[in-house]
Amino acid sequence: MRAVGLIVEYNPFHNGHAYHLQASKEAAEADIVIAVMSGNFLQRGEPALVSKWQRTKMALLNGVDIVFELPYCFATQKAETFANGAVSMLDAVGTHCLCFGSESGDISDFFRTIDHLEAKQHLFNENIKQFLSTGVSYPKALSLAFGQLPDSDKYLDLAKPNNILGLEYIKAIKQQKSNVIPMTIPRKNANYHDQDFTSATIASATSIRKAIFADSDGKSAIDQYVPKATKQLLNEYLQFYQVFHQWENYWSYLQFRLIHSSPEELRNIYEMEEGLENRLLSAAREADTYLEFMQKIKTKRYTWTRLQRLCVHILTNSKKEDMAMISEKASYLRLLGMTTKGKEYLNKNKAHLSLPLISKLSSFKGKEINLDIKAARVFSLGLPNHLKNKMIHQEYQQPPIYIK
Amino acid sequence: MRAVGLIVEYNPFHNGHAYHLQASKEAAEADIVIAVMSGNFLQRGEPALVSKWQRTKMALLNGVDIVFELPYCFATQKAETFANGAVSMLDAVGTHCLCFGSESGDISDFFRTIDHLEAKQHLFNENIKQFLSTGVSYPKALSLAFGQLPDSDKYLDLAKPNNILGLEYIKAIKQQKSNVIPMTIPRKNANYHDQDFTSATIASATSIRKAIFADSDGKSAIDQYVPKATKQLLNEYLQFYQVFHQWENYWSYLQFRLIHSSPEELRNIYEMEEGLENRLLSAAREADTYLEFMQKIKTKRYTWTRLQRLCVHILTNSKKEDMAMISEKASYLRLLGMTTKGKEYLNKNKAHLSLPLISKLSSFKGKEINLDIKAARVFSLGLPNHLKNKMIHQEYQQPPIYIK
């Protein structure tokens, strides 16, 4: 059985994802689709709209055969770390190829760009340093530095977020000497950061979430952009848990943590840089909402995403020492769900998996998975009091979701 | 001007307090009344119903002339520490006598009991140890140990909470070689722990709070037990801040703190004893409400009050090292409010105060007062989001309340 791997967040699963899935399967001539999916907190430093379990159901009902959870220590990270974790998992499960969507859509662009970057590495690094010294953020410096290299217009556009991610996937594959073959397909219509609907059937997850939170009517406004299963699963979640998760639901906790901690304690948090703790402390004392807080702490130097990830680490109390032991590869495969075909694949390949397969939390111990559990606990804080522990119990008791 | 000192919580100020105040003033032949009042968190380890500012107004409108805040590091403590802090403040401001309510009502009982305890100290301590080894709480062991001393029935009844507090006041006066003269008056009708109304005009603060939280009608049920000013100030507070404070308002924060902290971090919290942190951690993972949580952690060994105080320290993140530097005497007098007569008294005695008088937060720095500020921040978490920072600003900007 030939497997194509996808690296996803599905927040929520929409028509663009469905297109990417089908196109990837065809391009790779694959029998099954394996997704490595972020858990409850995402790469942009945000809580997912609904839990990883519900998003797993969306994936399985829309064509994915196996869903693994990308551990917290890789999921809420910059592109490089995120890519390293996800690629190592696809490799461990024997995926034949990884197919990612990109603005470029041409895999040779990626290889040429990597070669170019390697050839000009010294100049590139010098350029980055120079731009960083002007006070811009790292991703901005990277894109500007690349633009300064000779003939840069003949290579990938590194101002595009999915090109950057793709580049990191391929760098990870090279670095890990992985057998996974990278492929890319062009993204359709929606840009990653689009806030509003621009096409009749495909919209960015950002604009879909925006519509969902806009008002109660927003939920029907998304109908044309998401498969029916997504719509049903969103409604089901809302009915049971009474909320969709967003940062504002966690603001009280973030504020509490900030106002009762000492600067020394905050300085130990992963990704906290010297001096930033005081900025956060004073903003927490002034802001009434998460949005106000973010607007107060935002500077040219730190991207919104970078700051949000830091805030997630504050909530989960993830310290520098906790994250220091994270290696560049994942150390387990936590199975969130599978279809019959997915099950068949896993049964056939069981003996060849290079990492332990976890179907039940109680059967595995480790520092990394403790972070996942803590993230699930913290995610549950977004719910009404009487439902929090229900979600925690699910985390421990839920067997992998199985869909025939 | 002759001043009588009272040590109070006024949660809220009720008819029993009004009686105690008048009787104390008369007994002491005093011109003015000085109250040392707990701030936002109380000796029983609970948030006050309304802020210290609103309770200061209650005090001033009902006959108190000067209100000082008993610092957090004394207010949320066992009787001995509570008494030490309060007595030292009354002494520093030149109060002539301290008049406390007690079940006994006879000051000579207290002196005789202290002499008796000193004479039998060795036996008493042995008795306490023995009872503690049976697993009962410290206050229980103390009362039982005293009962085992010869002729104990001729002395104070140490099963009564106000007798114990009174004893600690007098011990503090002796130990600090204070000039404050202790007096006591018998408490009227209500017992400290009474849950229900038992008299026509005097009820315990416990039963009054219970009625207030029982339902919206409870607010009129208390009319006969509290002065009009109290009623008005309670209503005003509710209108502005939309809540009365109780532990359940803080449960989410306590639970969050417990589920994201490591056992090592919790072990540093003041009053945390070996092994208790794990008990708290596992209870936080099971309980949906504060009451459920408390019921899960309660044992014979720890009183409800002792555990509640520990929970307050968890909320305020007060560590053993923070509290270790607390001496037996207060180091400042934070003025919360005064009447014209109170102002006159302070003006006259300004030169003789043995501690700095703080009217404005910004004019004073210190570790102890930082704990008060943190307590005020944490207290504000019980409010709706858009009102939290309003309360914090009051903490910094509110001059002492002045009532003519």
List the helices and strands and how they pair.
The structure is a homodimer of 404-residue chains.
Chain A: E1 3-8, H1 15-28, E2 32-38, H2 52-61, E3 66-70, H3 72-75, H4 79-92, E4 97-102, H5 107-119, H6 121-133, H7 138-148, H8 161-175, E5 181-186, H9 205-214, H10 218-221, H11 228-241, H12 251-260, H13 263-267, H14 276-284, H15 290-297, H16 304-316, H17 320-324, E6 333-339, H18 340-349, E7 357-358, H19 367-380, H20 385-397, E8 401-403
Helix pairs in contact in A: 2-11, 4-8, 5-8, 6-7, 14-15, 19-20
Q: What this model shows, in words?
A:
Two copies of one chain form a homodimer. Chain A has three domains: 3-103 and 183-245 and 328-403, Rossmann fold, CATH 3.40.50; 108-159, no CATH class; 247-324, no CATH class. The first copy, chain A, is 52% helix and 10% strand. Chain A is built from 20 helices and eight strands. In chain A, helix 5 (107-119) packs across helix 8 (161-175) and helix 6 packs across helix 7 (138-148). The two termini of chain A are 18 Å apart. At the A-B interface, helix 12, helix 19 and helix 20 of A face helix 12, helix 19 and helix 20 of B.
